[in-house]
Specification:
Blueprint lengths: L1 E4 L11 E4 L41 H5 L28 E3 L6 H11 L9 E3 L3 H4 L4 E3 L5 E2 L4 E2 L13 E2 L5 E2 L7 H17 L5 H24 L19 H6 L17 H39 L1 H4 L5 E3 L8 H11 L7 E5 L5 E5 L22 H8 L4 E4 L5 E4 L2 H13 L2
Parallel strand pairs: 3-4, 3-5, 5-7, 10-11
Antiparallel strand pairs: 1-2, 6-7, 8-9, 11-12, 12-14, 13-14
Helix pairs in contact: 2-4, 2-7, 4-5, 5-7
Length: 427
């Protein structure tokens, strides 16, 4: 059955076409929007727009999964034949931030801006003189004004309460962010999508939105929270359990010249040079979070999606999925997709091979629980191994069943599948 898939883009308004449905629909199989990056880069101003108004129905097909490109673009701007190559000219536009002691906030904001087409390697001025920073093309973390239209990104105003989009919590609910946006958070809000696409121009619109939000969750939010004074607490008593002395903000602060620091010639350190070091450090940390997110987590998510889509072909119960390897992170994405797609019944077992080539049968835990399984392997199997287990289970090739019943093994895929089917039949 063919369903017309209509995706309304706030800026593009394009019709992507038809997509065939499978056993259930998935919103992650969007065709890639091929972004031509030569001589231009994606210019992001999306925070006021909703990328997708509605996805009616999409399927996960093998071809669409295999064609997805999670590799970072080549940095060689002289490669005339690469569609992933972007040529950028250094910008003469001036970036301004405050002088004096610097923090990760504005150092990261400057680095982010310098990854964009408009401010590629832009010069920087650090000052608190309003006459000086008013000459700049863009101002961050100083001036007392937030206005994207005027290219001013400060967060110290009395009535300021800008926050990132609400965080998704248990049950698909939305929760207000614990922290306001710092200057780097504001810059990321407006330019984050652009710099992600600059690094990974083949990301689909939906993959881009996933990465954009996850980068805030995993990296940007902590910088915002530290800069705006949100403490790390646990429990209802509000007691501070520890202070982070190893994070990005602390490492940046250590680059500030010490009050009595001089070199061998009796000179005080150049604060602007130290700031440039801090900005580079922030960029290195940003990329260290972005690269595995796109190059490892997105491919894992695609594999889990495909496995879920094909679950009814694997077993009519729809409660078993097969992964090609056990090393990829699957649990988080399984929960997300089940909730998004209203999967019923829930998946009980995941089959995969370990490093030795043994097929594993792993029970899926209840979401939010570390040790409670949705369905454990049968009680009579637990703690039994090899031939004894094969006799008790009536399945050839069994190798073990953990005493807690959360995982077992078999020499073959067929044997592992029979173990999972038998466990489901006994429930």
């Amino acid at each position: 059955m063919d369903l017309i898939v209509i995706i309304l883009f706030s800026t593009f308004g394009i019709l992507l076409g038809q997509a065939k449905t499978s056993s259930f629909t998935l919103s992650k199989s969007l065709p890639f929007v091929q972004t031509k990056t030569r001589n231009r880069l994606f210019v992001a101003n999306h925070h006021r727009h909703t990328i997708f108004t509605k996805v009616i129905s999409l399927s996960m097909t093998t071809s669409s999964t295999d064609s997805r490109n999670f590799k970072r673009k080549k940095d060689d701007s002289n490669d005339e034949n690469s569609s992933n190559t972007a040529i950028l000219s250094n910008s003469s536009k001036l970036i301004a931030t405050h002088s004096g002691t610097f923090q990760a906030d504005e150092a990261l904001a400057v680095w982010i801006l310098r990854q964009t087409s408009a401010y590629q390697n832009s010069p920087l001025i650090r000052t608190r003189d309003v006459k000086e920073y008013s000459k700049a093309d863009i101002v961050v973390d100083v001036g007392g004004v937030y206005s994207h239209q005027d290219k001013k990104y400060d967060h110290h105003q009395r009535d300021y309460d800008e926050r990132f989009t609400p965080k998704e919590v248990e049950g698909g609910l939305k929760e207000k962010r614990c922290t306001k946006l710092s200057a780097s958070g504001l810059v990321y809000r407006h330019y984050g999508r652009e710099i992600i696409l600059n690094k990974y121009p083949d990301l689909s619109e939906q993959d881009l939105e996933f990465v954009y939000t996850k980068m805030y969750d995993n990296f940007m939010e902590a910088v915002d929270a530290i800069d705006t004074g949100v403490e790390q607490v646990a429990g209802g008593d509000g007691k501070l359990l520890y202070k982070d002395k190893t994070g990005l903000s602390i490492r940046v602060s250590r680059l500030n010249p010490r009050w009595n620091e001089i070199d061998d010639g009796g000179n005080v350190p150049d604060v602007t040079k130290r700031f440039e070091c801090a900005s580079a450090l922030c960029g290195e940390d940003f990329l260290s979070a972005l690269v595995p997110l796109v190059e490892s987590q997105l491919p894992a998510r695609a594999i889990v999606e495909k496995a879920i889509c094909e679950r009814n072909e694997l077993d009519s119960s729809g409660e078993i999925i097969k992964l090609p390897t056990g090393g990829l992170p699957w649990r988080q994405y399984l929960y997300e997709i089940e909730e998004c797609e209203d999967i019923d019944p829930l998946i009980k077992f995941v089959l995969y091979t370990d490093q030795a080539g043994m097929w594993r049968v792993q029970a899926v835990t209840v979401k939010g629980k570390a040790f409670e399984n949705r369905l454990s392997l049968p009680e009579e199997w637990r703690g039994i191994r090899d031939e004894d287990l094969s006799i008790i289970a009536g399945i050839e090739g069994c190798t073990f069943c953990h005493a807690a019943g959360f995982i077992g093994g078999n020499e073959t895929f067929e044997g592992a599948l029979k173990m999972a089917r038998s466990a489901i039949a006994k429930k």
